[in-house]
Amino acid sequence: MKKLLLLFLSLTILSCASNNHIPGTPEATGETATIYAKSITTADLKSRLYIFASDEFEGRNTGEPGQKKAADFLKNFYINAGIPSPLGGDDYFQDIATEFLRPNLKPSENVLAFVEGSEKPEEIIVISAHLDHLGVVDGEIYNGADDDGSGNVAILEIAEAFQKAVENGNGPKRSILFLHVTGEEKGLLGSKYYVNHPIFPLANTVANLNIDMIGRVDDAHEKKPEFVYLIGSDKLSSELHSLSEDINHKFTKLDLDYRYNDEDDPNRFYYRSDHYNFAKNNIPIIFYFNGTHDNYHRPSDTPDKINYEILQKRTKLIFYTAWELANRENRITVDK
Ligand SMILES: [Zn+2]
Question: What pTM value is reported for the model?
Answer without folding.
Answer: 0.93
